[in-house]
Design brief:
The protein is of the alpha+beta class and 437 residues long. It has 2 domains: 15-203, no CATH class; 244-434, Lysozyme-like (3-Layer(aba) Sandwich). The protein is built from 7 helices and 19 strands. Strands 1, 2, 3, 4, 5, 6, 7, 8, 9, 10 and 11 form an 11-stranded antiparallel beta sheet that branches. A 6-stranded mixed beta sheet has the order 12-15-14-16-13-19. It starts with 14 loop residues before the first strand and ends with a helix.
Length: 437
């Protein structure tokens, strides 16, 4: 796949009481930079490369990653290694952390590892320093239970993937500190952390030249996808097509994703998610958040494209997600075991404890009224899907869902957060109303 350019960086490291896993020394870190111009004067501060390249990168004989395209944005991939042998004899209660006070600017981060079947049974906490600031943010937790997102087992996309936490949007930053530790399991030994842990620092970059700068396509009459049969004589219940910010509109570089598209037969259900990226973004920043998630899904996690079919921001703006056509049954990577004959909608933010804005719930209703209507779906109805294999339902099991369901209905997960999940009943009612039911 595509390579990436790496430049050296000077790194200051400070040790403290720390975790069983920490950021490695400079020689063990790798920066994946898609275009030298995109880093500006900070390019000279990029860490030197070593080790195997991550997804979306190739290495030359010297092990350095080089760019083969001009994709905006950067991904710095920093190896997380166990403490040195001498430090392993300290009491288990002690922690170890290492600090990177200077890195190439980034806005989104996450942790990835080699085997997608391995879980990170522990905690990941980070703090960052905003660009131009001297003070650091407080510690933030990264959502570690993220393996339930992704392609279905047995697919090529699933086989190519890496394990990953949810990404976290932290805003433009140039310093980072991370703490990773296994879950306490007294009186038993703590569980092992996954192999190949890396901290991914993502700069979404600016939109490619010629992008529409998040200008939505105009709303128009409902479209009928060519793949569905002719509608019966009865009235088709299709909501008005909402305004949708296209991939070009939010600045998706089409050379970043895999070529071609993946489709399923129909769209019977919509699974609602929260992105778990945090709520510290403005609606003006939403396109940047999406570019960050897109890059994290493809470059860091090894997916073919962004996993969600659509996204909705806190202001209710609707965005095209995975490529393939907004009217078509595009196969996403959002609800493990149930990506066939469904679509995934991510509300940007974290809604386990925060109430989602009414505009975001309205965006879900408008989108589902239209898209499900194209496939004759009733937002207040029930539908049966066949599990492709998940932690909740065995492969081949037939499961009945609400046509508009939460991710937790298909998997043992908190997603889309209790507060957003509690709003889905209202979204179903509103969507049915938009369809004229």
């Amino acid at each position: 796949m595509r390579g990436h350019l790496v430049n050296p960086i000077g790194v200051a490291v400070s040790a403290a009481l720390a975790l069983p896993l920490s950021l490695s020394l400079p020689a063990a870190s790798t920066a994946l930079t898609d275009t030298a111009a995109s880093t500006g004067s900070a390019a000279s501060r990029t860490p030197a490369a070593s080790g195997a390249p991550g997804p979306g990168a190739t290495a030359d004989g010297a092990g350095h990653l080089r760019s083969s395209d001009g994709i905006p944005g950067t991904t710095q991939s920093l190896a997380l290694l166990p403490p040195a042998p001498a430090s392993r004899s300290v009491a288990p209660a002690l922690e170890r952390s290492l600090l990177r006070p200077e890195v190439t600017p980034f806005s989104l981060l996450g942790v990835v590892w080699a085997d997608p079947a391995s879980e990170l049974l522990g905690t990941v906490q980070v703090r960052t320093r905003p660009i131009g600031a001297t003070r650091w943010t407080g510690w933030q937790s990264v959502e570690t239970h993220h393996h339930e997102h992704g392609a279905d087992p047995g697919t090529a996309e699933h086989r190519a993937a890496r394990g990953a936490t949810a990404p976290l949007w932290v805003g433009p930053s140039d310093g980072v500190e991370v703490r990773v530790r296994p879950r306490a399991a007294e009186p038993f030994p703590a569980p092992s952390l996954p192999h190949g842990l890396r901290l991914e620092l993502v700069d979404p970059g600016r939109p490619p030249a010629g992008s529409a700068a998040a200008r939505p396509e105009p709303a128009r009459a409902p479209d009928a996808p060519a793949a569905i049969p002719a509608a019966p004589a009865a009235k088709p219940y299709i909501g008005p097509r909402p305004k949708i910010v296209t991939r070009q509109g939010w600045g998706a570089s089409e050379s970043l994703r895999e070529k071609g598209f993946a489709y399923t037969k129909t769209v019977k259900a919509a699974f609602v998610h929260h992105s778990a990226t945090g709520n510290n973004y403005s609606c003006k920043q939403a396109p940047s958040v999406l570019r960050g998630i897109y890059r994290y899904h493809v470059v860091s996690s090894g997916w073919r494209d962004i996993g969600y079919n659509f996204a909705v921001d806190k202001c209710g703006n609707i965005y095209e997600g995975r490529a393939g056509g907004v009217t078509k049954a595009v196969r996403g990577a959002h609800t493990l075991g149930f990506n066939t004959n469904s679509m995934g909608i991510a509300v940007l933010g974290s809604y386990s404890r925060s109430t989602p804005p009414a505009a975001a719930v309205t965006g879900i209703a408008k989108l589902t009224a239209w898209k499900l209507g194209l496939f004759q779906g009733n937002p207040k109805g029930r539908v049966t899907l066949v599990s492709g294999g998940s932690g909740k339902y065995a492969k081949g099991r037939k499961v009945t869902f609400n046509v508009i369901s939460g991710h937790r209905d298909g998997f043992n997960t908190d997603c889309p957060g209790a507060r957003l999940y509690g709003k889905l009943g209202g979204a179903r009612t509103a969507a049915a109303g938009y369809q004229g039911r």
